[in-house]
């Protein structure tokens, strides 16, 4: 069964790849903006053609049958054609090179295009419910014929295919806009299936469920639009990077442990659209190391990140005293206190400054966003616990947040 499922997935990939190979140059390098643009334009053109085709067929079926649900579903496909045009234009604009006014490129336009698609879905759901309520108030018999049933079945199959290829391409290029379009296509598939069932019931019985069906479809499409909007608004507002991406960054940096890397912290990833990522990170190095050799190492790490992950990195070197026994012993004690508060907490930039009356213990503690205590409570608790170890200890603490 597993083998068959994998084989089926490979066949599905080939169905998508065939069209992509014919139209998208260098299609395998999906992180390149121009290649992503090619995928988006392809999906936009296919979406416009198929949705216009579906609109024409359903509009004809709606006029013949007198069904408000079929007619509303037809105009839903017409709005999808408009959404495909928005997607096409969005990817075309997102693929533009950076300019003086947009030095980080235009990649986020892709998210905006996906948001417009979501808004179109919500507007169409409102219009569909409104028309369906009128149909409930003034019910009319609808006609069911083999031609109408055939049009609806073909429409369902076409929308299933559209949902499939948008989902596959969205997965391939990690596109929120394509994911939103795939959700819309699947919503249309379910909506048209309900319309088909209602039409069959109307042809076989005296039940007139056309208006109620329209309301149900409209509500379903509304929630699909809300979910699609969330998928596009989240990257616009700013979201944490994928765990796999963070793991890859850490793996690349820690390759240089033998040359002086002791650890990393304060990783922040800035996303300016698919394929346009910048990051900053602090890398711990020996305090007594050769500064020129360490600087050369940092340059090589930045180059490696750019080469493997296609992202620009800015790395800050943090000198760490790793050969002082007293410092390392005190660091272990502080670590135990922090872990007692919460196992998920981390700390970094640990150093001590001794004086005639007291010893400053300086470090940053990383507190999860969902942590129940306030930053002030965290600092006060740690200061009290550390001073219990020795009343000459005074903790100077900076609270950080985890951005990944």
Helices and strands in order:
Elements: H1 2-23, H2 33-65, H3 68-94, H4 109-137, H5 146-173, H6 176-204, H7 210-237, H8 243-254, E1 263-271, E2 277-286, H9 291-309, E3 311-320, H10 325-341, E4 346-354, E5 359-367, H11 375-389, E6 393-401
Parallel strand pairs: 2-3, 5-6
Antiparallel strand pairs: 1-2, 4-5
Helix pairs in contact: 2-3, 2-5, 3-4, 3-6, 4-6, 4-7, 5-6, 6-7, 8-9
What does this structure look like?
The protein is α/β, with parallel strands linked by helices and 404 residues long. The protein is built from 11 helices and 6 strands. The strands form 2 sheets. Strands 1-2-3 form a 3-stranded mixed beta sheet, with helices on one face. A hairpin with a 5-residue loop joins strand 1 and strand 2 (277-286).
First-residue to last-residue Cα separation: 37 Å
Largest sheet: 3 strands, mixed
> How many distinct helices?
11
Rg result: 29 Å
Structural class: alpha/beta
Share of residues in strands:
5-15%
Broad shape: elongated
Given as residue ranges, the uncertain stretches (5+ residues, pLDDT < 50) are: 1-12
Helix residue percentage: 55-70%
Give the rounded overall mean pLDDT: 80
Number of strands: 6
Descriptive key words:
alpha/beta, 404 residues, single chain
Outline of the structure:
The chain is an alpha/beta fold and 404 residues long.
């Amino acid at each position: 069964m597993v083998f068959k499922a994998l084989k089926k997935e490979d066949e599905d990939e080939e169905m998508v790849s065939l069209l992509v190979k014919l139209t998208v140059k260098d299609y395998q390098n999906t992180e390149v903006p121009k290649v992503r643009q090619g995928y988006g334009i392809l999906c936009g053109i296919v979406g416009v053609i198929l949705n216009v085709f579906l609109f024409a067929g359903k509009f004809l079926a709606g006029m013949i049958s007198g069904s408000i649900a079929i007619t509303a579903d037809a105009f839903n496909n017409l709005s999808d054609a408009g959404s495909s045009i928005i997607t096409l234009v969005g990817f075309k604009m997102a693929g533009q090179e950076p300019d003086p006014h947009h030095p980080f490129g235009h990649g986020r336009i892709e998210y905006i295009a996906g948001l417009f698609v979501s808004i179109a879905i919500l507007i169409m759901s409102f219009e569909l419910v409104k028309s369906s309520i009128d149909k409930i108030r003034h019910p009319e018999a609808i006609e069911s014929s083999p031609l109408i049933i055939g049009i609806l079945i073909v429409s369902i199959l076409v929308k299933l295919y559209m949902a499939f290829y948008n989902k596959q391409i969205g997965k391939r290029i990690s596109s929120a806009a394509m994911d939103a379009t795939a959700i819309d296509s699947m919503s249309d598939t379910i909506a048209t299936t309900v319309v088909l069932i209602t039409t069959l019931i109307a042809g076989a019985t005296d039940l007139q469920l056309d208006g109620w069906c329209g309301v149900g479809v409209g509500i379903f499409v509304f929630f699909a639009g809300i979910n699609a909007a969330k998928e596009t608004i989240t990257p616009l507002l700013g979201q944490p990077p994928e765990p796999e991406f963070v793991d890859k960054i850490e793996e690349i940096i820690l390759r240089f442990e033998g040359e002086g890397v002791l650890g990393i912290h304060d990783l922040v990833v800035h996303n300016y659209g698919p394929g346009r990522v910048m990051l900053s990170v602090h890398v711990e190095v020996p305090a007594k190391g050769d500064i020129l050799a360490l600087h050369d190492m940092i340059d090589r790490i930045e180059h490696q990140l750019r080469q493997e992950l296609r992202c620009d990195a800015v790395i800050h070197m943090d000198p760490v005293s790793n050969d002082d026994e007293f410092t390392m012993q005190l660091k272990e004690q502080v670590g135990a206190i922090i872990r007692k508060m919460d196992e998920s907490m981390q700390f970094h930039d640990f150093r001590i400054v001794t004086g005639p009356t007291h010893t400053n213990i300086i470090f940053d503690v990383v507190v999860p966003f969902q942590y129940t205590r306030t930053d002030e409570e965290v600092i006060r608790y740690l200061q009290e616990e550390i001073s219990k170890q020795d009343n000459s200890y005074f903790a100077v603490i900076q609270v950080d947040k985890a951005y990944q």
